[in-house]
Design goal:
Layout (H helix, E strand, L loop, with lengths): L4 E4 L2 H5 L1 H5 L12 H8 L4 E8 L4 E11 L3 E6 L11 H14 L4 E6 L7 H9 L3 E2 L8 E2 L1 E3 L4 H7 L2 H12 L4 E4 L3 H18 L7 H13 L3 E8 L2 E11 L2 E9 L8 H14 L7 E3 L17 H7 L7 E2 L4 E4 L2 H23 L5
Parallel strand pairs: 4-5, 12-13
Antiparallel strand pairs: 1-2, 2-3, 3-4, 5-15, 6-15, 7-14, 8-13, 9-10, 10-11, 11-12
Helix pairs in contact: 3-9, 7-10, 8-9
Length: about 350
């Protein structure tokens, strides 16, 4: 079992951050990226670049940090730490504790959400490591994944029949998917479509337009994002923003109009985007449809992602559940106060001052 040490990345490593992250054991995650760090730095988070080293491998992880009077610092490892196995987590967390103590960083808690598959064994190990299960923050802690390593026709045949038939019908009916210019006008259209879809298919909330504009433009500027539209009679009726980050593709944001004539247009957008990312010089090997209810609630109409789950499981009926979000108390006394009253107070103050989501 590896023993880890923890340190902050050098200036040179930070300049090569995305390259370093996608070399991680699990291939990195777009929520550990330079583009995402840039957005969060404009929304109340300090950004740190954490390196976990062992004799076997090195892992690069984005840390978002907030400071609170009396409590100290909260660290949030979005979709991290990225480790080769869940069994390596206790040693990695011990290294983080030692770093905080040695540098007197006053970290009272670390929030993690590693992409390890959920299950009794994984949960038992996390609990034994002193972690506390918290409500999930990221939509794709439960999601639908598509293996993109095969040839296109083989991938199409591997899809669930509903998704496969929808793609082929849209193709027969002449639906055209266009990759559009990522500009202000099209970002506004994309944002409005997304809001319409959330209103009709999900009870989940949405951030302000400026957040998405910064998010989308940051990935586009790095060659990691692209925007797709489908039109009917000149009107945009389907939109999707997808990201290629390392060997993973992600359907990050999407939306559609309830009033449209052709069946399968949303499915064809995903099919076109998937194949575009598969044909990159460094092709993706996996496409993440990014967010469904957990497997045991996929048919629960009360779940906020129920409507989105219906669409995404038409491609693949298998829902992948990851372990989700967990807290590591570093200072037990302060963490107990944080979990009983501090976090609620901090969220209330943040909402009053900024009107933005806390995390």
């Amino acid at each position: 079992m590896p023993i880890f040490t923890a340190r902050f990345a050098s200036a040179e490593e930070q300049e090569q951050w995305d390259e370093k992250v996608v070399s991680n054991p699990l291939g990195g995650n777009l929520l550990q990226s330079e583009a995402f760090a840039e957005v969060k730095a404009q929304y109340g988070w300090a950004v740190r670049f954490l390196v976990l080293e062992s004799a076997e491998y090195t892992s690069y992880n984005l840390v978002l940090e907030k400071s609170f009077p009396f409590f100290g610092k909260l660290w949030y490892l979005t979709k991290g730490p990225d480790l080769a196995a869940v069994e390596h987590l206790p040693a990695a967390l011990d290294a983080i504790r030692k770093l905080s103590s040695a540098q007197k960083l006053k970290v009272f808690a670390v929030k993690i959400e590693p992409d390890f598959l959920d299950g009794d064994a994984a949960r038992s190990l996390l609990l034994a490591s002193g972690l506390r299960k918290m409500p999930n923050l990221q939509p794709n802690d439960s999601t639908v994944l598509i293996d993109t390593t095969a040839e296109p026709e083989q991938i199409l045949r591997s899809l669930s029949s509903r998704g496969r038939n929808a793609v082929r019908r849209a193709q027969r009916e002449g639906v055209e998917v266009e990759r559009v210019e990522p500009n202000e006008e099209n970002y506004r259209i994309m944002y409005d479509l997304r809001a319409q879809t959330l209103a009709g298919k999900s009870s989940a909330g949405s951030r302000e337009y400026a957040y998405y504009q910064k998010f989308w433009s940051g990935f586009v500027a790095r060659g990691q994002g692209r925007l797709y539209f489908v039109r009917e009679e000149g009107r945009v009726v389907v939109g999707a923003f997808v990201i290629n980050y390392g060997r993973k593709g992600t359907y990050k944001d999407g939306g559609s109009s309830a009033k449209r004539a052709r069946y399968g247009d949303s499915h064809l957008v995903q099919w076109v985007a998937l194949n575009d990312l598969k044909n990159l010089p460094e092709p993706i090997v996996e496409y993440d449809l990014c967010g469904t209810p957990p497997a045991d609630r996929i048919k629960d109409a009360s779940h906020p992602y129920y409507g989105l789950g219906l669409f995404k499981t038409s491609f693949n009926k298998t829902v992948t559940d990851f372990v989700g979000c967990w807290d590591l108390p570093v200072d037990g006394f302060r963490y107990r106060l944080w979990s009983t009253v501090g976090e609620r107070l901090a969220r209330w103050i943040n909402a009053r001052r900024t009107g933005q989501e806390f995390y």
